[in-house]
Design a protein that fits this description.
By secondary structure, the protein is mainly α. It has a domain of about 30 residues. It has 3 helices and no strands. The radius of gyration is 41 Å and the shape is elongated. The model has no long low-confidence stretch (mean pLDDT about 75).
Length: about 120
């Protein structure tokens, strides 16, 4: 039975073929595969952007504190000074300089110092 193959179904090989061109079925399968991969990637990016949006909304809600809680939190916790080591050793100027005592005296100290707009 296997030896009785009709000659019309088998083509004789005349030369060596290194590349067989893809059939229409293979081309369609490749196109469908590309479409599936593209749609999967698009859905994955949509889910990632949606998840990032949800995370950012939750973070915004946490940052927007209730005003009553904010007042209680400020009253309950004393403010801690942020130390700047470079400003402490004198390399850079302090970002929040301490107020210097002003020379507000009476009498002869300020007698010659009239305000500029009064002149």
């Amino acid at each position: 039975m296997a030896g009785n193959i009709p000659p019309s179904l088998v083509e004789p090989v005349v030369t060596v073929q290194h590349f067989a061109p893809p059939s229409a079925r293979e081309l369609r399968a490749q196109a469908v595969h590309r479409l599936q991969v593209g749609l999967f990637g698009l859905c994955a990016m949509l889910l990632i952007v949606g998840l990032a949006n949800i995370i950012m909304d939750r973070a915004r809600l946490v940052d927007a504190e209730d005003p009553i809680r904010a007042v209680v939190a400020v009253d309950a916790k004393p403010k801690r000074q942020v130390a700047d080591p470079l400003a402490d050793i004198g390399v850079v100027p302090a970002s929040d300089p301490s107020p210097t005592p002003s020379a507000t005296g009476t009498g002869a100290d300020n007698a010659g110092n009239a305000p500029l707009d009064a002149q």
